[in-house]
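Homework help board

Subject: predicted structure for assignment chain

Our instructor gave us this sequence and asked us to write out the predicted structure in token form, then describe one feature. I got the tokens but I'm not sure how to describe them. Can anyone check?
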Amino acid sequence: MKIHFHEGDLPGGVDFGKSVAIDTETLGLNPQRDALCLAQLSGGDGHCHVVRFDRKSYRAPNLVRLLEDGDVVKVFHYARFDVAVFRKYLGVTVTPVWCTKIASKLVRTYTDKHGLKDLVKELLDIDLSKQQQSSDWGAAKLSDAQLAYAASDVLHLHKLKAALEAMLVREGRLDLAQKCFGFVTTRAALDLGGWPEEDIFAH
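My token output:
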């Protein structure tokens, strides 16, 4: 694993190909309250680019350009949250989206364990450490352990996508999954607009 650390924005010229795995680190799980601190990106090649944002401006034009690029698939685990924080802090609509958590819930119906650690263990036989999950991502200096944890959350997403996509095809649910992925930006907008828990489709 090779970690490239960048202050403020992704450098120009970084090429992730046709798909990029993305995760974020924030100061909590409420996108309206808790600041976006980091974004981690990987092309599935063992390299991870970690961007620490300038929280006074959140100006990151290169990253925004990538997030809006319709030709590059953005692979997330729990895309709903990451898409919402990018919309809140960068003012960007992320598209297109592929979510390993949604895929898992659609195809791994034999379990209720859909966390990243569970997926990586079952499908890739890798033990993922979550030791730094509760961590101060707004600290002036990030530790090597924090950066390694942040990077590990994206390094396996391409392989997870491939494994889950094969299962979705096998069970005839890929089209349903794609429709769900397309709704993520709307779901994120509902979260930010004040409907985070309410099921607006309920009676």
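Reply (TA_rk): Your tokens look well-formed. For the description, you could write something like this. Helices lie at 61-68, 79-90, 100-107, 116-124, 144-155, 157-170, 174-193. That's the kind of observation they're looking for.
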